[in-house]
Specification:
The protein is α+β, with helices and mostly antiparallel strands. It is about 20% helix and about 30% strand.
Length: about 180
């Protein structure tokens, strides 16, 4: 938490604040439990590449979202038509590997998160079984839940949204939400 708070005083952050005319700044640090995801990804309530507000774009892969965010895996991509609430298309990614939490005692995948250390030190990359690679990582029920979540976030927060999510079993967890920005 100290490192996060201290990042407010880096040269880059201070330059940004000065450039935008800020004379004072503060920072809150959010601490949340790590979700040991079966599947994780990102959902956009408008296509981030084309700006099409008539569709939701979801990318997801097995394991923690770090493998999607850092480009280690080719995720599944599903585009949902907002008018019909049905998929426009589904593109299956390779999903050869997944990142999972490491067991504190053995280095193997864990069902409970470790409480200390950096995320990279608490995770392990493993191969995804062939049978799972050959199917979409999100079920139709997951897609319906994500569609509903995207619609709710757009209604509550206004405008197009960028959501990070995790799935454990049948439950979809909203991890983070922000407005889609261009630039």
């Amino acid at each position: 938490m100290r490192d996060c708070w201290a990042s407010l005083f880096t040269e880059r952050a201070l330059t940004y604040l000065r450039r935008h005319g800020a004379t004072e700044a503060g920072m809150g640090v959010v601490v949340q439990a790590m979700v040991n995801a079966d599947v994780a990804g990102v959902a956009f309530t408008a296509n981030p590449l084309t700006g099409d507000g008539g569709e939701i774009v979801i990318t997801a892969a097995y394991g923690l979202g770090t493998s999607v965010a850092d480009g280690r895996v080719s995720p599944d991509t599903i585009r949902i038509d907002k008018a019909t609430r049905g998929p426009r298309d589904r593109v299956m990614g390779e999903k050869r590997t997944r990142v999972v939490l490491r067991r504190a005692d053995s280095g193997e995948a864990s069902t409970t998160p470790a409480a200390d250390g950096d995320l990279a030190a608490r995770t392990v990359e493993e191969d995804v079984p062939e049978a799972l690679r050959a199917e979409l990582c999100l079920s139709d029920a997951h897609l319906r839940a994500l569609d509903a979540l995207c619609s709710r976030c757009e209604a509550v927060f206004g405008g197009s949204q960028d959501l990070e999510f995790a799935v454990t079993g049948d439950h979809v967890h909203l991890l983070q939400r922000r407005a889609i920005t261009r630039g």
